[in-house]
Amino acid sequence: MAFKKTFVLSTEAVNTYGFVVLTAGINIDSAKKNCPCFYDHNTWEVPLGHWENLRKENNQLLGDLVIEGSNEREKQYITKIENGDIKGASIGMDTLQWDLTPQAVLLNGQTKPTLISCDLFEASITPLPGNNNALALKHDGSLITLNSNNHKNIIPNLKNTDMKQIALKIGLAETATENEIVTAINALQLKSQQGEAFQTEMLKDADKDLTDDNKEVFVELSKTNPAKALKFAQLNKKVDDTESTVETTQGKATATVVKDVKVSALLKRSAGDNSQHDNKDGKDTFDYLQKHNSVELSRIKKEDPEKYNQLATDYGNGIRYTGK
């Protein structure tokens, strides 16, 4: 009666050569028809037996070894397996595709790329654990045995990220080390986080000294352009501080300085906006509607928020009603 035993032929653990064989990528179609068993990938010898019931379970490749035991050599190997002298198995494969991308996810201890596609053409029993110390690969039509006695390496290297380009991009010399690049990136991230936190805190209190009308504009600007909103609040506060009552030569009080005109000029200069408002009489500006037609402004805000935001942005950029 033939000897039968199930072996784990391959797993997705990192082998001693630093790479991983993806179980899902092992093509076993041809091997199901014919998969000989050798000892330690000695394919020039007469096979000891063959493999049946090749299958994939839990990211492992399993196979049932069948040895007839019809001669002394086969019986000797059966005895060694039964005694525990030979415990391992290993696959022989024709490599098809490696994952060489720099962003490939590597396992702990992995130094070589992942083999994501291959063809199984044989499997061997070996005294060394198959997944760790014995593999056979086809390369340019020739069989290359990888084991503890043969370290000829045909495994490609991972493609490295172009660190020089990254270094130059963040203002370092192209000779910067990886540690220097990582340190610089961490500093940039921290600076960005601190800047965002600072801006958030400023936005919380920036509208304290604004009029109700300007607060509404400030809120709209802060939604799309926080920096411009802060500048708007700052400029309006400065104008507020300089407002004063002017006496005429007759000793009578006159109107206060019109701050909207000053803010408009300042905002136009700060934003570099030299464009002219294309409205003929300016009666569809945020400024005019706010003062003379608040009902229409409320309608626009409710029914056409995009137009309302544009009006608020124009107001922040200094667009004012100039009609008589």
Task: Offer a concise description of the structure.
By secondary structure, this protein is of the alpha/beta class. It has 11 helices and 10 strands.
Protein model, in words:
This protein is α/β, with parallel strands linked by helices and 324 residues long. The chain has three domains: 3-147, no CATH class; 161-203; 206-316, no CATH class. Helix content is 40%, strand content 22%. Strands 1, 2, 3, 4, 5, 6, 7, 8, 9 and 10 form a ten-stranded mixed beta sheet that branches. The protein starts with a strand and ends in an 8-residue tail after the last helix. Mean pLDDT is 75; it is low at 147-152 and 238-280.
Topology overview:
Blueprint: E1 3-10, E2 20-21, E3 26-27, H1 29-33, E4 36-39, E5 49-57, E6 60-67, H2 72-83, E7 88-99, E8 114-126, H3 130-133, E9 134-139, E10 142-147, H4 163-169, H5 178-205, H6 212-224, H7 226-242, H8 259-271, H9 286-292, H10 294-303, H11 305-316
Parallel strand pairs: 2-8, 3-8, 4-8, 7-9
Antiparallel strand pairs: 1-6, 4-5, 5-6, 7-8, 9-10
What descriptive keywords fit this protein?
22% strand, 11 helices, ten-stranded mixed sheet, 324 residues, alpha/beta, single chain, 3 domains
